[in-house]
Amino acid sequence: MDQRVTKTIIQETPDHFVEAMAAAAFGVTIVTTNGVSGKLGLTVSAVSSVSAQPPLLLVCINRKNMIVDAITSNASFTVNMLSEVQSSLAKSFAGRPEMGQKSYDFSQDAWRENSVAGPVLESAAANFMCKLETFQDAGTHRIFIGRVIEAQHNGALPLVYSHRKFGKFLSF
Asked: 104 near 40, Cβ under 8 Å?
C-alpha cells in the first residue's frame, strides 16, 4: 500500500518543503575558516561536489551565520567530512552541544591549522581544503564554490543525517 503524503509547497511558508527535505540523507561536515576575519567552524550538511576537473566543492550556508562573512573575507575554507562516531562534535558546531560540551569548541578534538584554508579535523573521514573560487546569494543562503587545493581521507565511514537524526552508513 502506498503511504505517500502529498502537500503543496506554498511560497510564503517553507514548512512543507523543509519537512520533505528532512527525508533526504546527507553527509555531515564541519566547515571551517581562519584568517583576518577569525577562526570559525559550523556544522553544514549542504555540501556537494561540483567538478572533478578542476576539483570544486559547493557549500551552502545561511547568510545570518557569521561564518558567511568570515569565509567571504578569508577567501578560503575547509570541509571536514565527519566520521560516523562524531555526532557529538556535529552537535557542538551546530550550536546544540551535549551536556558538558561547549558550542563551536575547537578544543574538543585534534585540529591542525592549514596555511591554505581553515582548521583541519585530523580524525575526520575526509578533509577538503579550498580557496574561494566564487559565491552567489540565493534565497536565505550564500552558495560558496571552492577550488580544492588539498584533499585527504582515512577510509572511515561518514556520519549521515536524515529525519533530523544522525545515523551510520550501512553497506549491503
From this structure: yes
Q: What is the DSSP letter of 21?
A: H
The CA-CA-CA angle for residues 54, 63, 50, to 5°, reads 15
Q: How far apart are CA 67 and CA 28, in angstroms?
A: 17
Domains of the chain: 27-162 (2.30.110.10)
Q: Can you say whether residue 113 is alpha, beta or left, with left for phi > 0 and alpha for psi between -120 and 50 degrees? A: beta
- Digit-coded pLDDT (tens) for 39-81: 999 999 999 999 999 999 999 999 999 999 999 999 999 999 9
Distance between CA atoms of 14 and 111, rounded to whole angstroms? 37
Cell of 44: 553544514
DSSP count for the chain of H helices, then E strands? 3, 12
Which amino acid type is present at position 22? Answer: A
